[in-house]
Task: inverse folding
C-alpha cells in the first residue's frame, strides 16, 4: 500500500468557517461563522421505540454524550409521566456533575489555558496543552490526568459503560451505588475539590495577576450586553441537572422564569439562508437581527450566563469564588465573553463540592432508584445544563411507544447568534486598515473559543476535530488571507 | 509487541462508521495473542485511556477529501497528522497532541502508529450502514490491512493462513 501524506486541511470537507469581509478602508464590514450540521436525526429516530432514544443520542456527539443521555432520560420521564424517587434523582445528579467536571477540566487545560498561559499571540505550535504543561510543570500535568480520569471513572461506574452511558431510564436509574463504590467516589470527590481550587489558583496567578490579561478580558470588543439563560434550583443557585430556567436582561432583571415543558412558549428559532444551523431567540422580545441590548431577543447560555442568572452558588467554596469574580469585574451581569473561562472554573469548584455532598448523602446508596412507568407514552421535554449551556430535548411518541417527533436545541445552537456577533465585534476591534496577522486572528478566535462551541458532531472523521478556516475578503469579495487549523 | 487495533467513527452517521466495520471484520479474521480490538467514537483526552499501555496502535478511521475514489485508503503516520493538524484545536485535543501529551506525562504510549483513513462519501447523514461504494470496498480494505501488517495472507475463502 502506498504511503501518502495528505494535503493540508483545506482539502478536507466539513469545515468550520469564519468569513471576514473588509471594506474599502480595510476595516471589518461583516463577519460570518458557519459550521456544517449533521442531517436527518429526527427521521433516524422515527418509528424506533422511544425508550431507545436515550441510547441513541449519546452517539450524536463524541464530546458530551452524557449531557445528551441525561436530557433524553429526563425527556422520557415526561413522555411516560413518571417521576423518579429521590435517590434516583440524586444518583443521576452525581453522574451528571462528574460529567461537568470531566468536560470543564478538558476545556480549561486544553483550550482556555493555551491562550493565556502560553500567550494569545504565541506561535501556534506552542499554543496548546503541551505548551501549557511546559510552563506550569509536569506535576500539574499529572494532576490533570489523574483528576480527569477520576471524573471518567465515576461516569463509567454509574453509566454502565465507559462511554455512551446506558444508566438513565424513564422513572430513574438502572443501577444503584454500592457502599464500596460510594466510599471510592467520596475519596475521589475530596481530591477533586482540591484540584478544582488548584485550577482556579492557576487562573488567578496567570491571568488575574497580569494587568494586560485582565484588561484583555474587559476589552469592549470582547463584550456583548445580551440576555442570559440558565437553570437554577429553588434557592436561585446554579444547577446543572434540574430546576427552572431563568432569563435575565442585560441589566440583570428577571425577564422570565419557566418550566422546561413550556420552552416553546419562550424560545423561537430563526433560519438564515447562509447556514443550516438555526438561531434561537426569546419569543416575547422577537428577532431584531444580530444586535445586543435589552430590545433584542438574543440570549446567551453557558458558564457565564448560568452565573449571571443565578443569585449565587449552592456550595461554600464556589460561592466565595463567585463573589470574587463579580467584585473584580464590577458586579453582574458580566458581559465580558472571556469571563466564561473564569466562570467555568467556579463551576468546576461547585461541581466538585456537589459531587462530594452527594457522595456523603444518606440516600445515595438506596436501592429505591426507579419508579416503573405505567402511563401510556405521550410527549416530554428534558432540559439539562450541558457544559456549554442549556440543552433541550423534546420528544413525542405515539400510543404504541414509537417515536414520532424529536426536537433538540443544543447549547452551541443557543449561542449561535452571539458567537457570530462576538466574532464580528472582535474582528472589528482587532483588524484595522487591512492589517491582519496570525496573532490578531487568534485573538478573534478567542472570542469564539470562550463559548467552547461544540462542533464535534463533525469531528468523527479524521483529523478528529473540526477543521477551522478563517477567510479574509477584501472589498471586492476576493480572499486576501486564509488561515487554517 | 502489545498492539491495539482501534476503529474510530460513528455507526449512526452513514460512512462515518466504516472504521468500526473494518475493525469488526479484522477482529473476526485475526486471531493472535497480544492484539486487542477496540471501537471508539470519541476523541481527544479520552484517547489516552484507550492507547496507554500499548506498544503499537493501528487506527482505522474515515476521511473525506473528495479527491480520490470512495473506499481508497490513505495510509498515514503520526508525523503527517502532526504537520497538518496539530495546531490549537477547535475543541479538546487532537490525536497527535493526545499522544504527545501522554508521552510528556510519562505514560506508556505506543511507539509505532499506523493510521488507515478510508475515503468516504457521506459522513453527515444519520443512517446506519455505509453508502454502496464504501460498503463494497470493505472486504478489500480488510485484506489490504491484514497483508500490510504482515498478519498473514488470506486464502480464497477469506481465512487467514500463515498467521
Result:
Amino acid at each position: 500500500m502506498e504511503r501518502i501524506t495528505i494535503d493540508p486541511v483545506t482539502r478536507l470537507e466539513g469545515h468550520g468557517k469564519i468569513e471576514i469581509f473588509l471594506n474599502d478602508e480595510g476595516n471589518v464590514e461583516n463577519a460570518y461563522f458557519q459550521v456544517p450540521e449533521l442531517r436527518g436525526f429526527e427521521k433516524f429516530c422515527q418509528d424506533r421505540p422511544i425508550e431507545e432514544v436515550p441510547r441513541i443520542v449519546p452517539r450524536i456527539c463524541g464530546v458530551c454524550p452524557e449531557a445528551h443521555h441525561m436530557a433524553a432520560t429526563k425527556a422520557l420521564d415526561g413522555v411516560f409521566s413518571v417521576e423518579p424517587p429521590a435517590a434516583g434523582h440524586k444518583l443521576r445528579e452525581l453522574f451528571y456533575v462528574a460529567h461537568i467536571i470531566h468536560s470543564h477540566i478538558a476545556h480549561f487545560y486544553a483550550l482556555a489555558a493555551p491562550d493565556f498561559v502560553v500567550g494569545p499571540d504565541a506561535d501556534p505550535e506552542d499554543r496548546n496543552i503541551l505548551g501549557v504543561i511546559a510552563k506550569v510543570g509536569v506535576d500539574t500535568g499529572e494532576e490533570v490526568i489523574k483528576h480527569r480520569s477520576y471524573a471518567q471513572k465515576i461516569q463509567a461506574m454509574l453509566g454502565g459503560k465507559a462511554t455512551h452511558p446506558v444508566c438513565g431510564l424513564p422513572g430513574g436509574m438502572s443501577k444503584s451505588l454500592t457502599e464500596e463504590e460510594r466510599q471510592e467516589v467520596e475519596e475521589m470527590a475530596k481530591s477533586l475539590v482540591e484540584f478544582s481550587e488548584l485550577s482556579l489558583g492557576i487562573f488567578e496567578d496567570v491571568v488575574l495577576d497580569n494587568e494586560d490579561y485582565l484588561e484583555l478580558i474587559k476589552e469592549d470588543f470582547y463584550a456583548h450586553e445580551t440576555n442570559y439563560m440558565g437553570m437554577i434550583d429553588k434557592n436561585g443557585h446554579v444547577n446543572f441537572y434540574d430546576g427552572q430556567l431563568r432569563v435575565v436582561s442585560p441589566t440583570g432583571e428577571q425577564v422570565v422564569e419557566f418550566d422546561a415543558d413550556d420552552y416553546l412558549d419562550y424560545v423561537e428559532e430563526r433560519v438564515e439562508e447562509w447556514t443550516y444551523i438555526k438561531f434561537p431567540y426569546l419569543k416575547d422580545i422577537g428577532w431584531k437581527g444580530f444586535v445586543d441590548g435589552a430590545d433584542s431577543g438574543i440570549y446567551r447560555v453557558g458558564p457565564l450566563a448560568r452565573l449571571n442568572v443565578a443569585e449565587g452558588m449552592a456550595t461554600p467554596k464556589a460561592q466565595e469564588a463567585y463573589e470574587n469574580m463579580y467584585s473584580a469585574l464590577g458586579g453582574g451581569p458580566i458581559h465580558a465573553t472571556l469571563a466564561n473561562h473564569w466562570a467555568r472554573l467556579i463551576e468546576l469548584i461547585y461541581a466538585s463540592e456537589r459531587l462530594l455532598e452527594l457522595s456523603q448523602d444518606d440516600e445515595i446508596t438506596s436501592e429505591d432508584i426507579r419508579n416503573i412507568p405505567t402511563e401510556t407514552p405521550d410527549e416530554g421535554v428534558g432540559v439539562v445544563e450541558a457544559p456549554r449551556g442549556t440543552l433541550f430535548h423534546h420528544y413525542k411518541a405515539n400510543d404504541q411507544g414509537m417515536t414520532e417527533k424529536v426536537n433538540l436545541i443544543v447549547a452551541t445552537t443557543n449561542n449561535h447568534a452571539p458567537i457570530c456577533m462576538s466574532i464580528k465585534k472582535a474582528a472589528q476591534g482587532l483588524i484595522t486598515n487591512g492589517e491582519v496577522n496570525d496573532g490578531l486572528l487568534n485573538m478573534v478566535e478567542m472570542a469564539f473559543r470562550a463559548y467552547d462551541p461544540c462542533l464535534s458532531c463533525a469531528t468523527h472523521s479524521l483529523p478528529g476535530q473540526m477543521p477551522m478556516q478563517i477567510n479574509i475578503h477584501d472589498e471586492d469579495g476576493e480572499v486576501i488571507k486564509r488561515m487554517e487549523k | 509487541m502489545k498492539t491495539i487495533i482501534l476503529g474510530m467513527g460513528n455507526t449512526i452517521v452513514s460512512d462515518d462508521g466504516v472504521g468500526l466495520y473494518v475493525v469488526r471484520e479484522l477482529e473476526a479474521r485475526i486471531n493472535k495473542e497480544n492484539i486487542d480490538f477496540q471501537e471508539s467514537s470519541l476523541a481527544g483526552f479520552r484517547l489516552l485511556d484507550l492507547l496507554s499501555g500499548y506498544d503499537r496502535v493501528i487506527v482505522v478511521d474515515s476521511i473525506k477529501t473528495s479527491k480520490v475514489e470512495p473506499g481508497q485508503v490513505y495510509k498515514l503516520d503520526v508525523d503527517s497528522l502532526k504537520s497538518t493538524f496539530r495546531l490549537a484545536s477547535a475543541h479538546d485535543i487532537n490525536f497527535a497532541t493526545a499522544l504527545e501529551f501522554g508521552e510528556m506525562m510519562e505514560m506508556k504510549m505506543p511507539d509505532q502508529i499506523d493510521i488507515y483513513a478510508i475515503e468516504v462519501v457521506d459522513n453527515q447523514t444519520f443512517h446506519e450502514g455505509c453508502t454502496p461504494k464504501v460498503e463494497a470496498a470493505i472486504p478489500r480494505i480488510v485484506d489490504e490491512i491484514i497483508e500490510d501488517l504482515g498478519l498473514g495472507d488470506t486464502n480464497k475463502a477469506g481465512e487467514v493462513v500463515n498467521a
About this structure: Strands of chain B lie at 3-8, 35-40, 56-63, 73-76, 112-119, 153-154, 160-161. The first strand of chain B starts at residue 3 and ends at 8. The mean pLDDT of chain B is 83. The radius of gyration of chain B is 16 Å.
